[in-house]
Amino acid sequence: MLVKEIVKGTGYVKLITRPRRFGKSTNMSMMREFFEIGRDGEPDPMLFKGLAIEGEKRIFEEWYRKHPVIHINLFAMSASDTFESSINFLRAIISEECRRHHYLQDSSHVLDSLKETLLKLEKNDADVGIVPLEKLLTSLRLISEALKSHYREPCIVLIDEYDSPFNHKSQDSFRDKLLSNLSVFFSYAFKGNRNVLLNVVTGCLRIANESIFTGANNLAVFDLDSKRFSKFYGMTHEELAAVLQDKGLLDHFDEFKTWYNGYNFGGTLVYNTSSVLSHVSALLQDEAAMPKNHWINTSRNDILESALEGGYNYHVVTRLVAGEAVALPQISDTITYRGLMREDSIWSILYSSGYLTKVMGSNGEYRIPNAEVKTVFVEFYKGYVKGKLGLEKLKNLHEAIYTLDAGSIEGLLKELLLSMSYHDTAVSHEDVYHDVFFGALFGLNCLSNREAGHGRSDIEVEFSESLLVAVFEFKRFEGKDKSLSDTAQRAYNQIFGLGYIELHKARGFKIAAFGVGCSGKDCKVAGGLVS
């Protein structure tokens, strides 16, 4: 039924943005199969027989296999590390589409000069003459002109992964040059092109018009906050239930919900389609298969690495990994590629890319959508902390906590702080120290900001097999303390003053309490086994 929504309003470019692996390319292929006019003597593939769209008689009669289609995917350009290689990938993409429409060479309705240019675009080699860059950038208009001449019907243009050529760090050095050239490429396709009836463009990021779609002054954007198209990308509860019912897997519904649900697209909660189908496949092969992350290896994640740079970002990521919803007012509904890796763009990109989702009904609060995406954050987080402290010392820190060795904990935490930049520790509160330490504890059973007694303890580490809990409280050195040791003692006293340990005493656990005083890149740790 996406087709029904797509054909509403044909005089503008529809840009639909969704994270990767939510069916953008599948939907594009489906639209091509629906719209593309049949070749002479080609049988109807009957792909839509008995489906809901067949019941829409007017749409089916007016649109089904009635128009030529141009369908390109720019994903291959994401592998480029130079401007020249980007253009070569674009040549290959256009060559493939010209090859798909090679029959135009036999058309009596297409000008010979246009056929010659299309053949050069198709062959893309020295034998027939490589089309110069200026001509390559007009290729979509040229193909649409030939198709319109041949079929006497306007085209439908489908452009998938339009943002892939720009959204990686490796493209920083030539992004501006590529932007200016592809702006021409898109402008010729969209602006004033009477050969085209309908344009649909998809990608992960919503861009500001001035960045690339300069010529598309009739652009309509349907992003993650838009209600329109919200149920056509990703899988709804009802759709998942139908799949699991069909495969005899309804008993696994809750694990699918925990691992792959949680995305808020325009007020509709959806699942990651690709991950759902991967886990269904795994369960059909092994009923005991556990859910896992199918998402991390589907694209480069350098944007998440950027999000861990800087004290503020580190603090926010820690809170997100701890399961909190975080207010992020700096998320913008448009992104300019020239500022792609600026700190104020990071969170917008993480949201658009599916690492975060907006809390349903909230005013600007965001969270990690599900267990699958959390594993992505955790792995990067662990790698970040390992890089700062080193794997051996990280193991030593975990051992020091287990053995309740306050001196070793202090020494190793100091080494971790020394590896951080000045800006990481320059904030005016203790949260950054809390976050750095919490990040170093991944692999242990730990909780952050757990409600306890009359407040929230900073960090609790539980060793269930030993019936042992270690409670940590962090304080930043202030003028009220004579020394950093006094700050550590004040933090230690708060653990008892606010009753953080009472619950664990009732459970029969042994309890250790540690107060941590912090200042700049220095710290003191006070405490040990309580009972």
Task: Describe the 3D structure.
- The protein is elongated.
- The longest helix has 19 residues, at 371-389.
- The termini are far apart.
- By secondary structure, the protein is an alpha/beta fold.
- Helix 5 (112-123) packs across helix 7 (139-151).
- It has 20 helices and 15 strands.
Mean pLDDT: 87
Structural class: alpha/beta
Distance between the termini: 64 Å
Oligomer class? single chain
Q: What characteristic shape results from the CA principal axes? A: elongated
Estimated radius of gyration: 28 Å
CATH fold description of the largest domain: Rossmann fold
| Number of discrete helical segments | 20
Largest sheet: 5 strands, parallel
Task: State the total count of DSSP E strands.
Answer: 15
Q: Summarize the amount of helix as a percent range.
A: 40-55%
Number of domains: 4
Which CATH architecture of the largest domain is right?
A: 3-Layer(aba) Sandwich
Brief digest:
This protein is of the alpha/beta class and 531 residues long.
For this entry, give a set of tags.
531 residues; alpha/beta; Rossmann fold; Arc Repressor Mutant, subunit A; 4 domains; 5-stranded parallel beta sheet; 5-stranded mixed beta sheet; 16% strand; elongated
Secondary-structure blueprint:
Elements: H1 2-6, E1 13-17, H2 24-35, H3 57-63, E2 69-73, H4 83-100, H5 112-123, H6 133-136, H7 139-151, E3 155-160, H8 175-190, E4 196-203, E5 219-222, H9 237-247, H10 253-260, E6 263-265, E7 268-270, H11 273-285, H12 302-307, H13 311-321, E8 326-327, H14 343-352, E9 357-358, E10 365-367, H15 371-389, H16 391-402, H17 406-418, H18 431-439, E11 446-452, E12 455-463, E13 468-476, H19 484-497, H20 502-506, E14 510-519, E15 522-529
Parallel strand pairs: 1-4, 1-5, 2-3, 3-4, 13-14
Antiparallel strand pairs: 6-7, 8-10, 9-10, 11-12, 12-13, 14-15
Helix pairs in contact: 4-5, 5-7, 7-8, 13-18, 15-16, 16-17
